[in-house]
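Long-time lurker, first post. I've been practising inverse folding by hand and with some scripts of my own, and I keep getting stuck on stretches where the structure tokens seem ambiguous. Below is the full token string for one chain I'm working on. Before anyone asks, I'm not after the true native sequence, just a reasonable design that respects the backbone. If someone could post their per-position residues I'd love to compare against what I wrote down in my notebook.
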């Protein structure tokens, strides 16, 4: 039996992220949510984390960290916060694929970092390519 693909969803509480989690749920033999990242929707991130039991979650909005940390304290889920954590979480060795679902410029740093760490990236936003398409595609070509 093949191993499940472990997915990091950057933007798990947005429309792309919630749809991706539905796909993971319906195909749980093949995929699992390894990391969930949200900007500020702590309530939905907590609900997703309790349902999908990822290895880690990141809430970018540092003012929401305490709420998420407390809500997940009875689990083994690691909780991180801040924009730097959003960028760095994609470095985890257990991630097989990064789904970049954050709209706008916010998703660029984590996408670039994922490419630098040789992670396959599924781009689900056009902004990354509009803002830095040349840089991102060059990096992807140059990274073995």
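-- Answer (accepted) --
I ran through it position by position. Result:
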């Amino acid at each position: 039996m093949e191993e499940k693909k472990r997915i990091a969803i950057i933007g798990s509480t947005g429309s792309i992220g919630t749809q991706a989690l539905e796909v993971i749920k319906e195909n749980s033999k093949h995929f699992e949510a390894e990391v969930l990242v949200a900007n500020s929707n702590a309530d939905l991130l907590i609900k997703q984390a309790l349902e999908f039991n990822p290895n880690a979650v990141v809430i970018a909005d540092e003012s929401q960290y305490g709420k998420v940390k407390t809500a997940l304290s009875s689990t083994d889920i690691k909780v991180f916060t801040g924009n730097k954590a959003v960028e760095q979480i994609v470095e985890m060795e257990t991630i097989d694929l990064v789904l970049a679902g954050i709209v706008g410029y916010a998703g660029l740093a984590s996408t670039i970092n994922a490419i630098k760490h040789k992670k396959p990236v599924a781009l689900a936003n056009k902004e990354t390519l509009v803002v830095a398409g040349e840089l991102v595609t060059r990096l992807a070509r140059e990274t073995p």
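A couple of notes from the structure itself: DSSP finds six helices and six strands in the chain. Strands lie at 5-10, 31-38, 56-59, 78-81, 97-100, 121-123. Happy to go over any region you disagree with.
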